[in-house]
Amino acid sequence: MAELIDSHRCFGGEQRRYRHRADSLGCDMVFSVFLPPEAANGPVPVLYYLSGLTCTDENFVAKAGAQQFAAEHGIAIVAPDTSPRGDDVPDDPEGSWDFGLGAGFYVNATQAPWNTHYRMYDYVVDELPALVNALLPVDGQRIGITGHSMGGHGALTIGLRNPSSFRSISAFSPICSPANCPWGHKALGNYLGADTATWLEHDACHLIQQADERLPILIDQGGADGFLTEQLQPELLLKAATAADYPVTLRIQAGYDHSYFFVASFIAEHVAFHAAHLNA
After folding, report:
1. Helix, strand or coil, per DSSP, at residue 122
2. Closest CA to 10 of 56, 44, 61, 51
3. 143/140 Cα distance (integer angstroms)
4. In the 8-state DSSP scheme, what is residue 44?
5. Degrees to nearest 5, angle at CA 105 with 100 and 109
6. Is residue 113 helix, strand or coil?
7. Which residues, at least 6 apart from 135, have a Cβ–Cβ distance to it below 8 Å?
8. Residue 145: other Cβ atoms inside 10 A
9. What is the C-alpha separation between 143 and 84, in angstroms, rounded?
10. Beta carbons of 30 and 51 less than 8 angstroms apart
11. Per-residue pLDDT tens listing for the chain (280 residues)
């Protein structure tokens, strides 16, 4: 089912790393999971963390410092990779960092050659949770989702599209409207094709206006983020949420940039936010 490839004692719990065959992606995948001390006594709530461009599962695990707070609140954290991997998985033909390997954008590609492997939406929504629920002592009914940058986009869109699967959503520096930014144009144009109507199912600004249910959403954005104006555009999401009467907490954190120093500065508050809903 899955091979344990790494394990470390951490804040009274355990930080693990697994490898498994992902049918939805047609390749082997690696994911990380932190199990809090309470997991030794039975199922615990679980928070999924989606990373951003160029990242793997290890960036968050090593840099965010989330394990301490997950242990305090008794929550497991699962961190998948950001794209399919392997010698036969196509990459950006120009070798760019913002598309291809490390940049799956959490969509199901429909265009060749990407549609053979790039089905990160199915992987995160269906295949990985089914594996985690069967393999580990987690409560599959108490799930939250969060992420950073491209992963923040993934957390918002996956949470909004699947409100019955999650109790809470948060994001750090999310790409709020990929239909309206260069990163999104490149990724969605290649993965989904030229019909921009298909892009909207992966655009948080569109989805929040279509939402029938209201999940709690917390967003932190660094005010000194170099990608803020061109790529991230949180003002578009706030405008859409206001129009839809969808309550969203958006905090602009003055002086913070796009790095994991920013994520680490506010991860305790995000874990506490999810804990309040997952442990209710």
Report:
1. helix
2. 61
3. 6
4. E
5. 75
6. coil
7. 1, 2, 18
8. 29
9. 23
10. no
11. 899 999 999 999 999 999 999 999 999 999 999 999 999 999 999 999 999 999 999 999 999 999 999 999 999 999 999 999 999 999 999 999 999 999 999 999 999 999 999 999 999 999 999 999 999 999 999 999 999 999 999 999 999 999 999 999 999 999 999 999 999 999 999 999 999 999 999 999 999 999 999 999 999 999 999 999 999 999 999 999 999 999 999 999 999 999 999 999 999 999 999 999 999 8
β-bridge partners, 103: 100
Please enumerate in sequence order all residues whose Cβ is within 8 A of that of 91, keeping only pairs 6 or more positions apart, or say none: 100, 101
Classify strands 13-22 and 249-253 as parallel, antiparallel or unpaired.
unpaired
pTM exceeds 0.85, yes or no: yes
Spatial distance between the Cα atoms of 94 and 3, rounded to a whole number of angstroms: 34
Residue 55, SS3 per DSSP:
coil
Q: How many CB atoms lie within 10 A of CB 41?
A: 9
Nearest Cα residue to 168 out of 47, 257, 10 = 47
Cβ pair 236, 177 in contact under 8 A:
yes
As a whole number of angstroms, the distance between CA 205 and CA 160 comes to: 10
- Distance (Å, rounded) from C-alpha 153 to C-alpha 148? 8
What CATH number has the domain spanning 3-278? 3.40.50.1820
Other Cβ atoms less than 10 A from the Cβ of 262: the count is 22
Give the span between the Cα atoms of 24 and 27, in whole angstroms.
8
**Amino acid letter, residue 30:** V
**Where in the sequence numbering do the catalytic residues fall?**
149, 225, 258
Residue 100 DSSP SS3 = strand
Q: How many residues appear in the chain?
A: 280
Give the amino acid at 46: V
Q: Which secondary structure element, helix H or strand E, spans residue 183, and what is its range?
A: helix 182-192
Evaluate whether 107 touches 25 at the Cβ level (below 8 Å): no
